[in-house]
Amino acid sequence: MSLLLQHLKNRKKFLPIAIFTAFVFVFMMLSLTNALSVLPPKYLSVKNFQECLASKDMGTWISWCMPITKPALCPQESWQQLSSFTGEDKLPSCQEFDTDMSN
Prior knowledge:
mainly alpha
């Protein structure tokens, strides 16, 4: 009988460690999943974005950039959406590319 009581006491000590370990595991898996998931650029969801943006040849890849003025074929709604992007979603201006390429 005392062996059973000792087993139960050890189990009570083990339970908080098991719960903490499970919590850390779940947290790390969620963090890893978020780190590996890459969303497409926001401008791809704007209707007719190709009509509004210019492209720049960067040597080994092509980048989209935001012209200073709205191109004639660019729908106003699309231009407004693209112009409103901020932070990581904001497209670089084509003028910035020209300045960077000349240095």
